[in-house]
Each structure stands twice: as structure tokens, then as C-alpha cells.
Write a structure and sequence with these properties.
alpha+beta, seven-stranded antiparallel beta sheet, 153 residues, Small Protein B, Chain: A
């Protein structure tokens, strides 16, 4: 069984990833059950800084149909991230001074706890995205040629 719950594949295409961090999350019981069922989408999520704390916005955790009737689940509620103060301060400094953005890359289980891999990123321009795609295709072609299965050109 894989410990990965969800990946944000779009982030690697849209941003240059500078530095990665691991953060815990404050979750409710129904959210943990939904995460165990892999009912999470990180596609349009991002992280903001408010009152020197990090908050995850836009992550969609779909409630299970068997969720309790006495709670009202909010799939896209704002969730607090848990990190060491020094790490948070370093990230806040990078965001405010150097123009970085903080985005979630993945969510996974670690020793029974849900963790989020977040990263300091800079946005890519359109020509950077094209160069990345071109480089990836060249690497794929190069591996194919080295293997001996050169395709017709």
C-alpha cells in the first residue's frame, strides 16, 4: 500500500521548486476518514500566511457518505499547517522579500499522521514551460536511443 494520498502534478509544471518542507495539519475526524479513502484533490490549492501562521486553502476533501449526521462537513475549509517556528519564519521571509509563493506538492501518511509536502516556488513564464517540455522529451528520446530502439526521424 502506498503512503501517498494525493499529488499536485500541476505544481511541477507551473513553478520552479526552490525548497521543500514537511508540515502537519489540523484535521477533523471525518477528514481523516476521507483521506484514508483517498478522497482529496490538491489541484487548485495554495498556502497563505496569516498572523505568522500557515493556512492551506483550496484543498478539497470530499466527505464520505457515511459521515456523521450531527456535523456539517465543509470540503474546502481552511486548514492550519503545523511547522517549527524557525521554518515558518524562513518561509515568511522568502515570500515577503524574495517574491516566492508557497504551494502544496503532495499529501501522504507518515507514522499514521497526514503530512503535507509544501514548497517555496517561483512561477514559470510560458517560454520556461516550453523549455521544460522540450528537455523532458529530449531525455526520453535519448534514453530510447541508448536502449537501441531509435524511432524513425
Amino acid at each position: 500500500m502506498s503512503s501517498t494520498i494525493a499529488l499536485n502534478r500541476e505544481a511541477k509544471h507551473e513553478y520552479f521548486i526552490e525548497e521543500r518542507f514537511e508540515a502537519g495539519m489540523v484535521l477533523q475526524g471525518w477528514e481523516v476518514k476521507s483521506l484514508r479513502a483517498n478522497r482529496l484533490t490538491l489541484k487548485d490549492s495554495y498556502i497563505i500566511v496569516k498572523n505568522a501562521e500557515l493556512w492551506l486553502l483550496g484543498a478539497h476533501i470530499s466527505p464520505l457518505p457515511t459521515a456523521s449526521t450531527h456535523i456539517n462537513p465543509d470540503p474546502t475549509r481552511t486548514r492550519k499547517l503545523l511547522m517549527h517556528r524557525e521554518q515558518i519564519n524562513r518561509m515568511i521571509g522568502s515570500v515577503e522579500r524574495k517574491g516566492f509563493t508557497i504551494v502544496p506538492l503532495a499529501m501522504y501518511w507518515k507514522q499514521g499522521r497526514a503530512k503535507v509536502e509544501i514548497a517555496l516556488v517561483k512561477g514559470k513564464q510560458e517560454h520556461d514551460k516550453r523549455a521544460t517540455v522540450k528537455d523532458r522529451e529530449w531525455q526520453r528520446d535519448k534514453a530510447r536511443i541508448m536502449k537501441g530502439g531509435a524511432r524513425d526521424v
